[in-house]
Specification:
There is one protein chain. The protein folds into 2 domains: about 5-240, no CATH class; about 270-370, no CATH class. The chain has 13 helices and no strands. By secondary structure, it is mainly alpha-helical. The protein has helices spanning about 5-30, 35-45, 50-60, 65-95, 100-125, 135-160, 170-185, 190-205, 210-235, 240-280, 290-295, 295-335, 345-360.
Length: about 375
């Protein structure tokens, strides 16, 4: 199936499902409480959203993912995943009764992680060219998890404001839950779903069929286990061990995964340097450009210099050149590993031609000493070796 057709199918499919999910969630929210309770819950639930998004955008600086896909990920988590999870959990309650412990530890993790992970699986099938590895999987999983947590927090905070299960309710009740869910553990859902994202990222980077199939499944199962373990820890001793569970379970898990994400980003930097070095050997770009294309501080310095020397058009040209070079590096890395997507020759040629067209208009920092336009051959494995 052509990439353009895949993109259209994915966008239409996800947008349609999101619309249905948004309508369903809207009805649930309207039926969940009084207007004041709903407004209070929404405002409090929105507090951690922007900082969380900023963290994932920081991770995503080498090759920023399309903003449209990131927004779709947020929307999928907020409207589709929550709707799917609510329906499946309602069916479970109807069929097997209301067992709070089983629902929290088994049913909720299974349904919620499946609903959230489905978006990343759809990306794998329909927009595979946007998934270059583990870091991309973490970023998309994070967006879906943030959207899911936002709507789920609205429901919980609204219920807390109204005073459920004999609780006093009011602003005091909502704020108390806000501290636990939005300040202490706002990264819980993104963290759980990140396991699925890592599994999908490993799958797209592997040449082994067993790994391509098994890594997403293992990632999903780890997401379910982490989610169930956290929910179960919160229920120990009727919730009185929540602080201990947070300090000895969630905080170490978050720190370990944050360290892993930073390591993954550093690893991608080394991979991009190696791929661009091979591209330079083939004549696709000048070797002296590589540090200015890969190192994040140097990239910013290039854009600042271009802005000073040639204004906004020069800065945009430099940014476009850096973006095309990084896209070429990811594609070339996959080619070297033997995992390039279908049609990679034509896509690689597009990147090479874009670099060649942009190069004469580049304004490099003087210290770089890059001479500029250099003949660039086609992006084919048999040329410019």
């Amino acid at each position: 199936m052509p990439a353009r057709h895949n993109t259209t199918v994915f966008t239409v499919l996800v947008s349609t499902v999101m619309l249905v999910g948004a309508l369903a969630i809207g009805v649930v929210l309207l039926l969940s409480g009084a207007p004041l309770a709903l407004v209070t819950g929404t405002v409090l639930a929105a507090v951690p959203v922007a900082p969380l998004i900023a963290c994932y955008l920081w991770l995503d600086r080498y090759e920023p993912e399309p903003r449209s896909l990131l927004v779709l990920g947020l929307g999928w988590g907020a409207f589709v995943a929550t709707t799917i999870a609510l329906v499946l959990q309602a069916v479970d309650t109807f069929a097997f009764g209301d067992g709070q412990a089983i629902t929290a530890v088994v049913v909720a993790p299974l349904t919620e992680e499946a609903a959230k992970g489905l978006f990343i699986v759809l990306l794998l099938f329909y927009r595979r060219q946007e998934l270059d590895g583990i870091l991309d999987g973490i970023v998309y999983a994070g967006m879906v998890g943030i959207g899911f947590a936002f709507v789920e927090n609205i429901l919980y905070l609204t219920s807390a404001y109204m005073g459920d299960n004999g609780a006093t309710g009011g602003l005091e009740g909502a704020v108390g839950l806000f501290v636990i869910r939005c300040l202490f553990s706002p990264f819980a859902h993104p963290l759980f779903t990140a396991f699925t994202g890592v599994g999908v990222g490993i799958a797209v980077s592997s040449r082994r069929r067993m790994v391509r199939f098994g890594a997403p499944v293992v990632g999903y199962l780890l997401a379910v286990c982490a989610h169930g373990l956290w929910n179960g820890a919160l229920m120990v001793d009727h919730g009185r061990g929540a602080v201990s569970a947070y300090l000895f379970l969630m905080v170490p898990a978050f720190l370990l995964f944050a360290g892993f994400a930073v390591w993954a980003r550093a690893r991608e930097g080394r991979m991009l340097t190696s791929a661009l070095a091979d591209c330079a050997k083939r004549g696709f770009l000048d070797p002296s450009e590589i540090p200015w294309l890969v190192r994040l501080p140097a990239r910013r310095a290039c854009r600042r210099y271009a802005q000073r020397a040639g204004g906004t058009p020069a800065r945009r040209t430099m940014a476009a050149y850096q973006r095309e070079a990084i896209e070429l590096a990811y594609l070339h890395h996959r080619y070297l590993r033997g995992t390039a997507p279908a049609g990679f020759e034509a896509l690689g040629q597009q990147h090479v031609e874009a670099l060649r067209a942009l190069r004469p208009r580049l304004l490099w920092p003087v210290a770089n000493g890059v001479s500029g336009a250099r003949p660039v051959p086609s992006h084919r494995s048999g040329e410019a070796r």
